[in-house]
Write a structure and sequence with these properties.
Length: 398
């Protein structure tokens, strides 16, 4: 059984019409896949930025365990076992086609994959647009790869072009037909990018696979804020940026919709266990019986700072609880609580309501139990700062 793992960068939970029936521009091909698969309407990413969230999905670990908790100067821990590597032990061939730069190699994900298709500036596949973002169209290479050997495959496909700044890459017909001038300028072509994926990329991808022998995951790394609470994504934990769409097509499972809150770290372990590979990692079993465990998430933070401003939280059932300043020297403060059933837009912060504080006490305890791990990671980063500065001095830059 092949596994095709597709992530659409910046795809919000309401970006596909199968999750958002009122969406003006329908995502017909995504909806067709959803009609054959399982829809998870309450899936949340572990982090609202690309490398950390992807690594969580491929390791089944939260960021404080895998080590990538900022954008720059970090790699995933070398002593953790990744899920693609476990598949390789079962004679799978693994490949990654990434849409943005050296995403795999920069963060130490190379060891997960037998073959990596990514590029660096100036290499084949790159185009640079006026805003400065780069993108890689890997469709030709993917088609050639799928015509290769008959081994079982795990393939990661990363569609980058829904990300802010990639507007110049989108065919003009989409920018003309689907532009939304009601949104800030940075995001007016967001739905054009989603439509390009739905109308051209997804059909092309599905043409290359045998649906009777392939499990397909369609999800995202994180969402997009559209400038409501922050400029784009990465620094807030509102559902606009951490709640993501999730569709799993499995030849052996019937279509259904699941509304239980889950974490993205449970996706791949559950799929692997469905292939009779045994309990490979601790997980929530999202394909079948679900165990209600809180979904953890955290923002990125500035590396090489003594007291990073940082948010972390959990979602469990109808509640979301967020702490601010969970760092080395900064006070750990309960900052936000939302009742998601009645306040879907997260506009009424209940963190000072005594009854709510009592009701969410178990979630608060669960979040606070992670603080030691948070501090350990931050201490390590502080030590790394001095090594980093020394290396710059040795090179004559300081």
């Amino acid at each position: 059984m092949d596994i095709l793992y597709v992530t659409v960068d910046c795809a919000r939970h309401d970006a596909f019409s199968c999750f958002n029936p009122g969406l003006k521009h329908k995502t017909h091909n995504i909806d067709k896949l959803a009609e054959k698969g399982i829809l998870y309407t309450q899936c949340r990413s572990t982090a609202p930025f690309t490398p950390s969230s992807h690594i969580s999905q491929f390791t089944g670990l939260n960021p404080y365990d895998h080590g990538v908790r900022t954008m720059y100067g970090v790699k995933m821990r070398e002593d953790i076992e990744t899920l693609p590597e476990l598949l390789k032990q079962r004679d799978y061939e693994t490949a990654a086609f990434t849409g943005f730069g050296n995403l795999v190699s920069y963060y130490g994900m190379n060891r997960m994959f037998d073959k990596v298709y990514e590029t660096v500036p100036g290499c084949k596949g790159w185009r640079k647009n006026p805003v400065g973002w780069l993108g890689y169209d890997w469709r030709k290479e993917f088609k050639e790869y799928m015509r290769g050997n008959n081994k079982s495959k795990f393939v990661w496909l990363h569609y980058f072009f829904a990300h802010t700044g990639s507007d110049a890459m989108i065919p003009p017909v989409y920018r003309t037909q689907y532009r939304d001038e009601s949104k800030p300028e940075l995001f007016e072509n967001y739905h054009a990018k989603i439509q390009w994926f739905d109308k051209e990329w997804l059909p092309f991808i599905l043409e290359q696979v045998d649906m009777s022998n392939t499990i397909i995951v369609l999800t995202a790394d994180h969402g997009e804020d559209f400038g409501k609470f922050e400029e784009s994504h990465g620094k807030e934990l509102k559902d606009l940026t951490i709640r993501i769409p999730l569709i799993i097509y499995h030849p052996d499972y019937m279509h259904e919709t699941k509304a239980e809150p889950i974490s993205a770290i449970d996706i791949l372990p559950s799929i692997m266990n469905s292939l009779d590979m045994g309990t490979m990692v601790k997980h929530n079993g999202i394909l079948e019986d679900y165990i209600y465990l809180p979904a953890y998430f955290e923002t990125w933070r500035t590396r090489y700072t003594e007291a990073p401003v940082f948010r972390c939280g959990m979602c469990c059932g109808e509640w979301k609880v967020i702490y601010k300043g969970a760092g080395l020297k900064e006070e750990k403060k309960l900052d936000e609580i939302y009742h998601l059933t009645v306040d879907k837009n997260e506009e009424k912060n209940l963190a000072e309501n005594p009854n709510v504080l009592d009701a969410t006490k178990p979630i608060q305890i669960a979040i606070e139990s992670t603080f030691d791990k948070l501090d350990i990671c931050i201490k390590k980063d502080t030590e790394d700062k001095h090594k980093f500065e020394q290396s710059l001095k040795n090179l004559g830059y300081m």
